[in-house]
Amino acid sequence: MSAPKKLFIKTYGCQMNVYDSERMAEAMGADGYTLTEDQSEADMVLLNTCHIREKASEKLYSDLGRLKPLKAEKPDLKIGVAGCVAQAEGGEIIRRMPLVDLVVGPQSYHRLPAMARGEAPSVETEFPAEDKFDHLPPRATRRAPTAFLTVQEGCDKFCAFCVVPYTRGAEISRPVARIMAEARDLTARGVREITLLGQNVNGWHGAGEDGREWGFGRLIRALAEIDGLERIRYTTSHPNDMSDDLIAAHGTEPKLMPYLHLPVQSGSDRVLKAMNRKHNAAEYLRLIERIREARPDIMLTSDFIVGFPGETEQDHRDTLRLIEEVGFGTAFSFKYSPRPGTPAAERAEIDSDIADARLQEVQALLSAQQRAAQESMVGRRLSVLFEKKGRTEGQMIGKTGYLHSCFVDGPQLSPGDLREVEITHSAPNSLAGRLVA
Ligand code: 5AD
Ligand code: SF4
Fold this sequence. Notes:
five-stranded mixed beta barrel, binds iron/sulfur cluster, six-stranded parallel β-sheet, alpha/beta, 24% strand
């Protein structure tokens, strides 16, 4: 037996990449690799990349450049590039950076161990006919009370700015039985909260355990029956896939957290049309109203793109007005960045300084809403799922249903405990409270 080999993974981008990195680590674990946090002691370095916004590939190339001395020192070091830049650029990465040994796309990473052994090509960016999930080892032992679970991948919506349909491919839903098995497995290993992941997660559908076609709401209700699983979340959703059944589940399923990330991207109908979003502002607002009817205390979050080609001052005002009307708990806003190969990349960009100024305005409004939403928690009694010890003696940190971090004095608590907490204080990035007896 040779000594265990060390794998260092750097993960960029979204939660789906975090999940993929875990699964790649587990797959390599079956080949004797253990994870290290110290790049210098690694036998293999894997960069799991993101391509959603600008300069992602430049960031990759500069990180690769910084690996040159390590590779010179350890010629056997294997360097792999995974994720969406790998998918988009393929073998070009090795041509530009010969120190790279392996390039693997998001749909092919079950082949990573064979690639590392030299038993498969060094570039795998096909969308293979087999399902990677059928070729990955079961979930490894884990102790954290929260976990991600990918249920859906890819996107068929083709928003004009977005690379996802090209890098992640067509929409695929994982089968019910596989999702249920993975969720049961995670729960048996101590997981109390599962976040279901997909680029278009609420578009998930599949043949149910009862032989009928299930939508995403039905899947959530089936998962909620798992004993020991206390909380369910999901991200990211498209407004057009919020079915009646899913909205209803927010009202009837207590394990489904009162938190919904529902990107709208813009408040201007003109811009939404140019973005190929296939919904307008009024439809979005009506949808929010229906979701709030089902679950009045729900917190809404969103994504915005500012400075899309052709965006006028009036369009920008429309976005600010939509934000005012909804009142978000938190939201992400990004300056538009043209992505090669997308339709919007062919269009003339707006003035960069104007886009920067608009972004600042959007972010100022969203930050004010975020502060207000967090402060409104003071005085409420909320369930908190505890995750780890705090810095001071006896302190524990957990998350409320709204994903706010919450500190309490609770020396008797363990990670995975779910307790009712009265919120007493709101600090810039967290809440504090006391356990309700
Ligand atoms: N430019 C800026 N932001 C983008 N996003 C996706 N593509 C782009 C782009 N080309 C944002 C969207 C999406 C989030 C994940 O990233 O708001 O919802
Ligand atoms: Fe990209 Fe989301 Fe639009 Fe799909 S729905 S193209 S993932 S922004």
